[in-house]
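Lab meeting, item 3. Inverse folding demo.
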């Protein structure tokens, strides 16, 4: 099968491993910054993955009121096709579902999970289902396929992003390919499993290959990013809005020039003033990624360019989480003091601090974003590293 992801980046161990299962996941960059940085935060590796317990978590987590964490692994499990898992506050892991592929189940979940108002948990798999083009699933005692993407007649294909639920328990997401023009879709799925394609991307000038999930405002508008697309002269990705009627508006097109970012793979977060914040995996003043702010008029500000500080991160593939003070937290896939990635904070004024540098034993190559609990603790995953080099779940107290 041809690779299902269209990331414009470089080669990596992640890409090589995904090729073994026929799914190109996320292509990483090889440049590494090896410098030193003093860290004062409390970091804990809660769980290291291996074999039937799951392998290679490429997505982030959700956390419940009791402090339990839920997520997916892209491989591993009983059938080697990925899992849905729970890790409690003591670091004990439970596999909630092992994907088996085929027409009745999904395979290779590359995204995190979403919860509706009733506590139901939903997610996507990149492959599996009736047409082997991915599924939307619901987890109860096990995982049930709610919808199988077909990639035909305008339907989407190969979802690699998570979902968001509204008050009526409809869920919304993106597919990285498919749609009328083949460049991906924004879709809605009812609680009963009825799918509607809200928007099909054309590539130019509206964006192509959305790799991230969406956020939802009080009016039902959806916001997200496309990794490529925009004006033909640029093709460096977009930030977009899709309303309830399916009308898309390009809020910003990245240019790469003059310190601007390029190739936003992560999604966006929105503050109370309707400003949007996110990362671009490439570009910035030093060419290794940046953090941006986009106000409601469409004016973009580069808050921080990686490579500016000693021991800095490089290539942020994931989106951000925001605390009550407006501070932004995220992960960089490479860089940090030791090379295999870092956790960072950027203040509203653009001051960056590296909170933790991974060294391989405690995790490596964090591709996913973070989640924050009510006490301010941050949780996330790394794709590799840990006791078995199959990825970890971690906790950081800033």
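The presenter then showed the designed sequence:
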């Amino acid at each position: 099968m041809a690779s299902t992801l269209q990331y414009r980046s470089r080669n990596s161990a992640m890409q090589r491993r995904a090729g073994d299962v026929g799914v190109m996941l996320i292509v990483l960059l090889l440049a590494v910054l090896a410098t030193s940085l003093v860290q004062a935060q409390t970091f804990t590796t809660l769980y290291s993955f291996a074999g039937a317990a799951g392998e290679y978590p490429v997505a982030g987590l959700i956390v419940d009121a009791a402090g339990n964490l839920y997520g997916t692994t892209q491989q591993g499990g009983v059938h080697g096709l990925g899992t849905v898992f729970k890790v409690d506050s003591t670091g004990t892991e439970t596999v909630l579902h092992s994907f088996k592929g085929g027409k009745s189940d999904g395979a290779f979940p590359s995204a995190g999970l979403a919860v509706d108002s009733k506590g139901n948990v939903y997610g996507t798999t990149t492959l599996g289902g009736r047409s082997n083009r991915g599924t939307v699933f619901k987890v109860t005692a096990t995982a049930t396929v709610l919808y199988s993407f077909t990639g035909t007649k305008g339907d989407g294909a190969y979802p690699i992003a998570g979902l968001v639920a509204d008050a009526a328990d409809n869920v919304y997401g993106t597919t990285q390919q498919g749609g009328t023009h083949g460049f991906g879709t924004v879709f809605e799925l009812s609680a009963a499993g009825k799918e509607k394609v809200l928007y099909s991307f054309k590539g130019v000038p509206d964006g192509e290959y959305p790799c991230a999930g969406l956020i939802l405002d009080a009016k039902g508008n959806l916001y997200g990013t496309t990794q490529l697309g925009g004006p033909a002269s640029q093709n460096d990705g977009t930030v977009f809005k899709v309303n309830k009627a399916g009308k898309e508006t390009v809020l910003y097109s990245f240019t790469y020039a003059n310190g601007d970012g390029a190739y936003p793979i992560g999604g966006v977060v929105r503050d109370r003033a309707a400003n949007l914040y996110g990362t671009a995996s490439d570009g910035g003043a030093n060419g290794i990624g940046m953090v941006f702010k986009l106000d409601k008029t469409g004016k973009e500000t580069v808050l921080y360019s990686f490579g500016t500080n000693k021991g800095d991160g490089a290539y942020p593939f994931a989106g951000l989480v925001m605390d009550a003070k407006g501070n932004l937290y995220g992960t960089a896939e490479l860089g940090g003091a030791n090379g295999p990635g870092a956790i960072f904070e950027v203040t509203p004024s653009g001051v960056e601090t590296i909170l933790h540098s991974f060294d391989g034993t405690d995790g490596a190559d964090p591709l996913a974003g973070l989640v924050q609990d009510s006490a301010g603790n941050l949780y996330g995953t790394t794709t590799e590293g840990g006791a078995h080099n199959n990825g970890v779940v971690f906790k950081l107290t800033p």
